[in-house]
């Protein structure tokens, strides 16, 4: 009796597994609508054909899945995300960064690519940067303060000396200029000796100025040197907060925009990476914040390496995954295959290629 029960159980499990397999194949036999938007080097359109790292990853996945599919193109990332959220497409293979806000709107597969949010800017020439600093307000302000202090002590000495020491500190404007000369010579410790206070008041002011000058000249010199220091934008950016000092542009609907909004960084929005790069070239913005691999690819593609550069500093780590409408059954079918694909030699070769 027990043998017959085991046989019936085995037959039941066999037919259940076969039915499940048929259901799975039936669900994937329908033509899948895969949403995409051009995002080189992940999704590239050339002569009507799509290629790129994301396209290749899907082709590897579909070798096992065996589904019939077609791509449905959208003009922008924000339009694609809306289509996924509303279920207009079955899913998207575009490089979409997984964020908390996006996870509230849609589901994501395991990440298939790890990236970073980067910053692109115009390349800086050290000579021009130095000249710009030389004529900056900080430098001019330091010089004016220095001249003002020299003139003050020169004038004070002249008050005591212009009557009793007319040979060295004459009357009127000419005498004040002579006091200015003495004050400058004293501060710099040149010590020409052509002028020296003779009165008690003049020497007292001179003594105070000698000791004060030692302290002031060191501080003022450090301030002037600091204003002349050639500091590039790269040195000034150490966190997202530092971006508030610059004119920043990013792509509408991107994870970079979410990051900038989180830190209240005032940002101009553009439709795609091409327009963002052009804004930097035209001087409309100082920095373009976006996905680092996309920035580098666009700069290389347009041969702009001499004009633009991507900073070594990155703002955050990004994880790209396929995006699905909430509760999509396709996620459970595609996710395990995608994870297995990432361990293959073909995928590693693709990463090296791109």
UniProtKB/TrEMBL annotation:
**What keywords would UniProt list here?**
Glycoprotein, Ion channel, Ion transport, Membrane, Receptor, Signal, Transmembrane, Transmembrane helix, Transport
Task: Extract the signal peptide range.
Answer: 1-21
- What is the topology of this protein in the membrane according to its UniProt annotation? Multi-pass membrane protein
Drop me one GO molecular function for this one.
Answer: ligand-gated monoatomic ion channel activity
Does this entry carry the keyword Membrane? yes
Which parts of the sequence belong to the Solute-binding protein family 3/N-terminal domain? 31-353
Give the originating organism.
Answer: Salegentibacter flavus
The UniProt entry, under Gene3D superfamilies, shows: 1.10.287.70, Periplasmic binding protein-like II
**Name used for this protein in its record:** Ligand-gated ion channel
Q: TM spans, by residue?
A: 139-160, 172-192, 204-225
The record's subcellular location field reads: Membrane
């Amino acid at each position: 009796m027990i043998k017959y029960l085991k046989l019936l159980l085995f037959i039941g499990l066999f037919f259940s597994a076969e039915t499940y397999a048929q259901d799975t194949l039936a669900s994937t036999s329908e033509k899948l609508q895969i949403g995409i938007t051009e995002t080189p080097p992940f999704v590239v359109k050339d002569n009507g054909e799509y290629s790129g790292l994301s396209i290749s990853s899907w082709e590897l996945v579909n070798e096992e899945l065996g589904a019939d599919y077609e791509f449905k193109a959208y003009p922008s990332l924000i339009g694609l995300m809306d289509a996924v959220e509303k279920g207009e497409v079955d899913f998207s293979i575009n490089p979409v960064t997984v964020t908390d806000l996006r996870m509230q709107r849609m589901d994501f597969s395991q990440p298939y690519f790890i990236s970073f949010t980067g910053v692109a800017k115009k390349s800086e020439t050290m000579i021009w940067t130095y000249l710009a600093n030389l004529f900056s307000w900080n430098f001019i302000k330091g010089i004016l303060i220095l001249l003002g202090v020299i003139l003050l002590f020169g004038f004070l000495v002249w008050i005591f000396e212009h009557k009793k020491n007319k040979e060295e500190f004459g009357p009127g404007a000419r005498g004040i200029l002579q006091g200015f000369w003495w004050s400058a010579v004293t501060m710099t410790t040149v010590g020409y000796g052509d002028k020296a206070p003779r009165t008690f008041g003049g020497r007292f002011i001179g003594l105070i100025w000698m000791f004060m000058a030692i302290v002031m000249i060191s501080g003022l010199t450090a301030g002037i040197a600091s204003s002349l220091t050639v500091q590039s934008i790269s040195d000034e950016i150490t966190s997202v907060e530092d971006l508030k000092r610059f004119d920043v542009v990013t792509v509408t609907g991107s994870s970079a925009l979410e990051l900038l909004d989180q830190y209240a960084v005032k940002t101009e929005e553009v439709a795609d990476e091409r327009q963002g790069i052009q804004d930097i070239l035209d001087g409309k913005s100082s920095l373009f914040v976006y996905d680092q691999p996309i920035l580098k690819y666009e700069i290389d593609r347009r041969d702009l390496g001499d004009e633009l550069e991507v900073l070594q500093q990155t703002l955050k780590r990004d994880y790209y995954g396929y995006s699905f409408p909430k509760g999509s059954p396709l996620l459970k079918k595609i996710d395990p295959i995608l994870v297995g694909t990432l361990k293959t030699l073909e995928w590693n070769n693709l990463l090296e290629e791109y």
